[in-house]
Amino acid sequence: MSDRRGPEDAWSEFVLAVFDVNGLITQAGERISRPLGQSSARWHVLGRAFQPQTVAQMAAEMGHARQSVQRVADVLEREGLIAYRPLPTDRRTKLVELTPRGHEVLGEIYQRQVAWFAEIASRLSEATLRELTTSLNEVSQALASSMSNEEQAS
């Protein structure tokens, strides 16, 4: 019986590692935000609403369907954590922005996240994190370029 998880080429191993890290970060996000009555998905939308933008912009940045982000935003709006404001250039489109209560909740989440990260940081150097960030940004740019080329070819 083999312990192989899949193909062993560098790209496949990289993708599986990113999936693993993403899953662990999402789990940590749930633990960080749950005591404040939030979830990782809500945290994502709150964090994006720090700079007012549309739901469509948020969804595109997050790589999620606009409808799924809209559902989360609607719940946050009902709870008074975000507000919809008219987009000055298109009155049919709404900007999502944090309310004062939303700023407060997001600040509490960030405080909890910083405390959690202090433990992680004790195991990784700042130089390692910066190098990894640079590398991930390079992969992200290559993927975005590839996707853009595929869209242009269609």
Extended strand count: 3
Which second-level CATH architecture applies? Orthogonal Bundle
Q: Count structural domains.
A: 1
Based on CA inertia axes, which overall geometry fits? globular
Identify the CATH homologous superfamily.
Winged helix-like DNA-binding domain superfamily/Winged helix DNA-binding domain
The CATH class label is Mainly Alpha
Report the average pLDDT across residues: 91
Distance between the termini: 43 Å
| Biggest beta-sheet profile | 3 strands, antiparallel
Structural class per helix/strand content? mainly alpha
Q: How are the strands of the biggest sheet laid out side by side?
A: 1-3-2
Task: Itemize the secondary structure elements and their pairings.
Blueprint: H1 10-33, H2 40-49, E1 53-54, H3 55-62, H4 66-78, E2 82-87, E3 90-98, H5 100-121, H6 126-153
Helix pairs in contact: 1-5, 2-4, 3-4
Description:
With 154 residues, the protein is mainly alpha-helical. 68% of the residues lie in helices and 11% in strands. It is built from 6 helices and 3 strands; from the N terminus they run ααβααββαα. Helix 1 crosses helix 5 (100-121). The radius of gyration is 18 Å and the shape is globular. The mean pLDDT is 91.
